[in-house]
Amino acid sequence: MQETIITNLMEAGLDPSTAEIYMMLIERGEMSPKNMFPHTELSRATVHDALSELLAYDFVEYRKEGRQAYYMPVHPNKLHNLIEDKKRETKQFEQNMQETIRSLSGTFNLSQHKPGVRFFEGKEGLRVALGDTLTSQGTIYAYIDVDSVVDKNIDEMNQAYVKKRKELGKDKQLLINNSASAQEYMKKLGPKNTDTRMLPTYIDAFHTSLQIYDNKVLYVTLRKKNIISIIIEDKDIYKLQKDLFHFLWDMSKDSMIQH
Q1: What is the pLDDT of residues 75-106, one digit of tens each?
Q2: What is the pLDDT of residue 240?
Q3: pTM exceeds 0.85, yes or no
């Protein structure tokens, strides 16, 4: 029975020595370290370390009588804290593994010549998706409806992204919507690592961003109701979008942004 309990405590996160000392206090009540030493093979230093850990968890109370310290276990209901800690760890582990699976699936599908697709929702999802473009080993090519970026209140996020991109030295070619406000916005961001041209005037506001990089294409919808980001990882889709970008880029050679 005692071994089972100690095993459970260890699985919940306690060190073996801490679980042993805790069990000793539960069975024997208040004790001083001096009284504990005859009942364990643990070293004096290990016993004191275990008591410090139990105090940190609030699983024991402490008092001094003269030069002697005494430790008293609190009610085992306190162990519920370990359950909550484990739940948080499990949730975080699940989130990390889900992201790992998505990333590995994209790489696997690409190697199998199947498009890998990842979806992200909301502003936080957009932050994660944009972060992926910063892993690019070459130039990032992008279409951006600048007015929609400002309108969706993601200007602060975008400026932080641009700052990080420039710090990393990631070059970018941008095709933006042809408007006076878009031109002013791009001048404010500055030219470093960024080459910008305007799309032809007959292309209306498209409420979208498209980023092309490293065999991937990132679509971002910038409509009023919700932001959705989609990363497609496929070398043929990437090549098509990159070729189309260069075609429009050449058409827009007379509309470079003057910083």
Answers
A1: 988 888 888 888 888 888 888 888 778 777 76
A2: 97
A3: no
Range of the domain at 18: 2-74
Please, which pLDDT band fits residue 259 given cuts at 50, 70 and 90?
A: very low
Domain membership of residue 259 (yes or no) is: no
Query: For 256, which DSSP code?
Result: B
From residue 82, alpha-carbon distances to 19, 48, 59 in Å are 12, 21, 11
Other CB atoms within a 10 A radius of the CB of residue 63 amount to: 10
Residue 105 shares a structural domain with residue 169: no
Number of domains in the chain: 3
CB hemisphere CA count around 81 (13 angstroms): 11
pLDDT of residue 81: 86
Q: Which two tokens stand for residue 162?
A: 């641009």
The b-or-e profile of 2-19 (16+ CB within 10 A means b, else e) is eeeebeebeeeebeebbb
Write the CB contacts of 74 (distance below 8 Å, at least 6 apart in sequence): 58, 59, 60, 61
In the structure encoding, which two tokens stand for residue 87, read together? 């739940």
Q: What is the mean pLDDT of residues 47-63?
A: 91
pLDDT at 191: 66
- Say which DSSP state 37 is in: G
Structure tokens at 189: 């961001």
* Tally: H helices and E strands in the chain: 10, 9
